[in-house]
Amino acid sequence: MNAEDLCFTSATELAEAIRTKALSPVEIAEAVLERIERVNPKLNAYCTLTAEIAREGAKRAEQAVMGGEKLGPLHGVPYSVKDLVITEGIRTMRGSKIHENEIPTEDAPLVTRLKQAGGVMIGKTTTPEFGWKGMTDSPVTGVTRNPWNTDLTPGGSSGGASAQVAAGLAPLAVGTDGGGSIRIPAGFAGIFGIKASYGRVPVYPSGAFDTLSHAGPMTRTVADAALMLSVMAGHHPSDRFSLLDAPADYVGRLREGIGGLRVAWSPNLGYATVNAEVARVSADAAGAFPGLGCTVEEVADPGFGDPTPTFTTHWLAGAAGMLGERLPEWEAKIDPGLVDMVKRGLELSAADFVKAQIERHAYCDRVRRFFESFDLLLTPTLAVLPFKAGVDYTEALKDEDVDWISWTPFSYPFNLTHLPAATVPAGFSQDGLPVGLQIVGRRGEELRVLQAAAAFEEARPWAGKRPPV
């Protein structure tokens, strides 16, 4: 196997090859690091490369294999961590000049678990400042680009992670998702990403966006995400909202199929304006589900209503709470778009926030009632195709009927409701740009979402497609 093929080999295959001594963890790490050296300057996917840590970890992993030691499920497999997630001894900038030189003294629980499972950390991936938007550029790390077309954004806020995985710069990536930040970039970069039920993966330390915030896997295959999620998931006392019940057997039950499920396909949730190419490709992908044994019903309007005002209040309040007191000192060095959000948030009252909480509860109840009639909901992942990198959305999307958030109308509803949601590569536009299909399940049923994604992947495989970068 040549070095490039090795870089595009799935984590599941790598782990098995390492266990059977068919591949060396050192060989894998060196292939990935060499490719990063060549490709990352074109993409800016990694903001901090931990090459020596990776090499040392790979050597220890190889010694463990040769010594007959007990091996973890990710033994010797490379992974990255988004630069919003704290890592002991490795700087965590959060895309901000405020934290440019911060070096945490502990790992987030999910990082500890990846290490304990034998994974080899390659580096930290880029994010917009504090993960505030769906594109990836920041004052401290610059512009990140899409491997399918480097003039375009890979989405955000986990855009470095999506670019990395798509370009073969490590098979596993940790993403975070407060309003779509796993699914948006996974959709734009043509990879798989899943936000499990809220609390399934512990989040520590908690951030300003609190009960909107999730963490999860971003991978090229569903099996890799199932494997990674099986390591990351589970209660941790540092996260008071982390779920107490044990995670399902994501790996062992992945291939059980979805025959007999009741599936709703909603092209626009009753309120979104969707690009014609996105609509065409995602509808075609949804059309595969009857062949997987499902009963599929098109639901033009599921009756949820548009949650944009509710979500916006939560998001603005979080931004204001996080940075309002820091504006006098730091405003000139913060992303201007984020500054605007903070100032808008400072204009909100406590009553405004409580009203938004009440509206959120009512919205969640409407969604719950919908899922009494359906097992899964399918939507497009995004309303638009990947657009120009490094510019404001108003310029990039001037020909689309969208505002700051309406180009992502399908993602943030399921942060508000805490439901598991994944995006699968649905196909490509006529210009060769990735389009995603979102799969949403009931709270606590991320295994079913994974099973549906795996069944779709088997019917319409995508992992063999490589970007031109």
Short description:
By secondary structure, this protein is α/β, with parallel strands linked by helices. It is 36% helix and 14% strand.
List the helices and strands and how they pair.
Blueprint: H1 3-7, H2 11-19, H3 25-43, E1 46-49, H4 51-66, E2 78-82, H5 109-116, E3 120-125, E4 137-138, E5 142-143, H6 159-166, E6 172-177, H7 183-189, E7 192-195, E8 214-219, H8 222-232, E9 262-265, H9 276-286, E10 295-298, H10 308-323, H11 327-330, H12 336-346, H13 350-370, E11 376-380, H14 393-396, H15 413-416, E12 421-428, E13 434-441, H16 446-459
Parallel strand pairs: 2-3, 2-6, 9-10, 9-11
Antiparallel strand pairs: 1-3, 4-5, 6-8, 7-8, 7-12, 11-13, 12-13
Helix pairs in contact: 3-4, 6-7, 8-16, 10-12, 10-13
Summary tags:
36% helix, 469 residues, two-stranded antiparallel ribbon, 13 strands, Amidase signature (AS) enzymes, alpha/beta, eleven-stranded mixed beta sheet
How would you describe what is shown here?
The protein is of the alpha/beta class. It has a single domain, classed as Amidase signature (AS) enzymes. It is built from 16 helices and 13 strands. The protein has helices at residues 3-7, 11-19, 25-43, 51-66, 109-116, 159-166, 183-189, 222-232, 276-286, 308-323, 327-330, 336-346, 350-370, 393-396, 413-416, 446-459, and strands at 46-49, 78-82, 120-125, 137-138, 142-143, 172-177, 192-195, 214-219, 262-265, 295-298, 376-380, 421-428, 434-441. The strands form two sheets. It has an eleven-stranded mixed beta sheet with strand order 1-3-2-6-8-7-12-13-11-9-10. Strands 4-5 form a two-stranded antiparallel sheet.
